[in-house]
Amino acid sequence: MTHPAALRLRRLLLLLLATLAITGCPAGASPDDQRDHVLWFLPPIDRQEGNRPVPLVVMLEGQGGTSLTQRSPWVSWFLDRGIAVAQMRSAALRGRHDWLAAGCTLGYAIDARDVLELARHEQPRIDTTRFALLGSGRGGTEALNSASYFGRDGLAMPAAVFAFAPGCAGWCPVDYAPDGQTDIHIFYGQDDPWGRHRDTLDRCRAQAGGRIATHIIPGAGHGFEGRSQDVQVIDGVTVRQQPNAIAAEIARSIVWQTLALAWTPPPYTAGMADVINLNKARKALAKQQQKAQAAANRVSFGTSKVSRTEARKDAERAAKDLDGKKIED
After folding, report:
1. Phi, psi of 158 (to 5 degrees)
2. Structure confidence at residue 303 (pLDDT)
3. Interhelix angle for 245-262 vs 273-301, to 10°?
């Protein structure tokens, strides 16, 4: 008969092996392992700014992974503002195509630290004391749980973390302190089915406080900040990507205001117009919502004037036709 202590040890080992199988972490992973699994994007050298080191945004990939030719729509936006981008390929590093079958287990937030270490030694144009993290879906959840990898061994804390539609099946952990050094911004589309699944959005919303902010964008769905219209099935939930240019403009304005205030000296001033356009974008979104609501009201509570007129004419024609067919007593 197996001793209870031995049985518990065996179960612990099986759990450890299962975790390693999911995360696929190579033995002795180091910044060198990232060299062939990160896409670097550097802004052009500005004539006025010269070759001054630029800040960096590290992008953690989502459920779908990242191919060698895949370029996030955020890349050009950051480059136009004098910010370098490191787009991570964490699934490829572990011999995976994507993370769709990995469940809610976390496993590659540490890659952000390794990429930063790599930049310290191989990217002289990047100022690694000024960096932020950004991720969507699973990548957002990983970014929200990366605090333990920074603030030590010569690495600064990120100025900000931007997480779009993070969390998993009613689980939305954040390991950054509300009163810490890092600004945390969680974004969710109000109509995102992933947020409604097991109250994940409410769990993320409950994290708000101190330097942790949750932004619920009205009228926006899943993937509003991107350009893909793919459909994925995650944890049994069918999630359709729904790009929304107006909602994306609002999110980007918040991102820019956060970074411009956090970094001294700030990046190029070309993006400062985004701050001015924030109210414009919000008004456009409100107008869009009003139109959508009016359309919904017509369906729910009545029809348009044209439709009512046509319906009345049809009724009159039907009545005349019926009168002509009546049998006189």
Report:
1. -65, 145
2. 52
3. 150
Amino acid at 224: F
Q: Would you give the end-to-end CA distance of the chain in angstroms?
A: 99
Strand 160-164 with 84-88, pairing: unpaired
- Of 6-20, 41-55, 73-87, give the lowest mean pLDDT range: 6-20
297-327 pLDDT tens trace: 554 455 555 555 665 665 565 555 444 433 3
For CA atoms 76, 214, 258, 39, give the dihedral sign. negative
| Residue range 238-284, pLDDT digits in tens | 888 889 999 999 999 999 999 988 997 777 654 445 544 556 655 66
Report yes or no: 22 and 103 within 8 Å, Cβ to Cβ: yes
Instruction: Give the pLDDT band of residue 82 (cuts 50, 70, 90).
Output: very high
- 3-state SS assignment for residue 183: strand
Q: What are phi and psi of 98, to 5 degrees?
A: -155, -170
> Strand, coil or helix: what is 71?
coil
pTM of the predicted model, to two decimals? 0.75
The radius of gyration of the chain's CA atoms, rounded to the nearest angstrom, is 26
pLDDT at 15: 40
Structural domain spans, the chain: 23-278
Buried b (16+ CB within 10 A) or exposed e, 283-292: eebeeeeeee
Opening angle at CA 75, ends 151 and 97, nearest 5: 80
H or E, element range at 248: helix 245-262
Assess contact for 137 and 230: CB atoms under 8 A. Answer: no
Give the DSSP per-residue string, 234-246. Answer: ETTEEEE----HH
What per-residue string of b and e applies to 145-181 under the rule 16 or more CB within 10 Å gives b? bbbebbeeeebbbbbbbbbbbbbbbeebebebeeeee
Q: Give the number of other Cβ atoms within 10 Å of residue 67's Cβ.
A: 14
Correct CATH for 23-278 of 3.30.565.10, 3.40.50.1820, 2.60.120.340, 2.60.120.280: 3.40.50.1820
